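User: I'm curious whether this sequence folds into something compact or stays loose and floppy. Could you predict its structure so I can see for myself?
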Amino acid sequence: MKGPSGENIVLEQLNILPKNYFVFHDVILPNGKGNIDHIVVGQTGLFIIETKNYSGSYRINGNRWYYYKNNKYIEIKQNPGTQLMRNILDLKSFLEDKGIKKSKIYAKGIVAFVQNNISITREPENYKVLSPSAIPEHILTHRKTDDENLLAKIALELEPYCTELTYVPKD
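Assistant: Here's the prediction. I'll summarize afterward.
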């Protein structure tokens, strides 16, 4: 099982974030090389989420991903972490083109692994691998940012490029 159903599972979890969080779904940037499944913009920063709903058995050792096939683990060259990091670079480049300095953008990456068929030997260096249910807590435990104006500008720039936006304003 792959694709949209996994993204919907993640979306359900993201929809429990508190008010004042923007959740962008299926973002296609003009300079990008593919879609970004979810981008969350809120008090605790900017989060890019790549969703995978793979069947089979997987192992992660740092930034290397392996798939179990024919009684052995085979390294995946174009793995979800690589895809996520490319999406983060594309997003930073897009925002820089919109006048937002890369140095001001701290984007945190998450690979959402929907199936419970993964073992992590060593955590990846630049992103987290989480189940969908762990994502809201992970987002909320980050330190609140001082620059809410920057986050509002980022949200404004992203809005035209998503197929769906979830936002509940603060009362």
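Summary: The first helix runs from residue 4 to 14. The first strand starts at residue 22 and ends at 28.
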